[in-house]
Every structure is written in C-alpha cells, then in structure tokens.
Amino acid sequence: MNDVFRLGAFGIGDAIERLLMYLTDEEMKSYLSKPRNGFDVLFGLGPGGSFRIDRKFLGARAPSVMDKVPCPVVACDAVARFNMSLPCEHELRVYEIRRATA
Fold it and tell me: What residue spans define the domains of the chain?
C-alpha cells in the first residue's frame, strides 16, 4: 500500500504513467485472494478494471495494514494493466496508479 500512495502523491501532474508491478508467491496470492482479507477486489482485477484505494478502504482492513502505512494516504485509483500466472506458483500484476479526481 505504501508504494501505491507514494506513486499517487507525485505532484507532477498527469504527464507520467505511474506503474506498480507486483510479483508474489503462492502464500501471498492465497492471502490477497481471500475475500475476508479485503484485497481480492484489487488482486483479482482483470486488465482494464479499476479500484479506488483510499483511507476508507484501508480502514476496513485489519488494523495491522494501517499501522504499516507511514506515508500520507492519497486517494488513488488502481487500474489493472496486466496479470499473469508464472512458473513456480508466482503471480505478476501491473497496475497504473492514478490520483483520484473525485
């Protein structure tokens, strides 16, 4: 989450693409895919899908999630650009991070 908010906080306008690449193993895939953990809506996005990440989203997660976010929370939209299952039970996700406009 910190990387999402850091990308969203760039103050140089929309002249750049803010891309987040996330490579994970089977253990984290399992955690991120479980609806009870609340990240499945983001991790399960297909290309072109988007999801708002903001203080409200974080507040609904386990308290340990918010405790690990030391940077300012800037509302962002994560737009899925790419997802793929890789060998050895790895998963790759690429999101474009856009600062929320409304």
Answer: 2-99
Sign of CA dihedral 57, 63, 64, 66: positive
Q: What is the pLDDT of residues 38-60, one digit of tens each?
A: 899 999 999 999 999 988 988 88
Q: How far is CA 68 from CA 1, 33, 39, 49, 72, in A?
A: 8, 20, 15, 26, 12
CA distance 66 to 38: 13
- Closest-CA residue to 92 (of 101, 80, 83): 83
> How far apart, in whole angstroms, are the C-alpha atoms of residue 64 and residue 9?
22
Instruction: Indicate the pairing of strand 19-24 with strand 90-99.
Output: antiparallel
Q: What is the amino acid identity at position 27?
A: E
- Reported as type and span, the H/E element at residue 90 is strand 90-99
* Contact (CB, 8 A) for 4 and 76: yes
Sheet with 90-99, edge to edge strand ranges: 19-24, 90-99, 76-86, 50-53
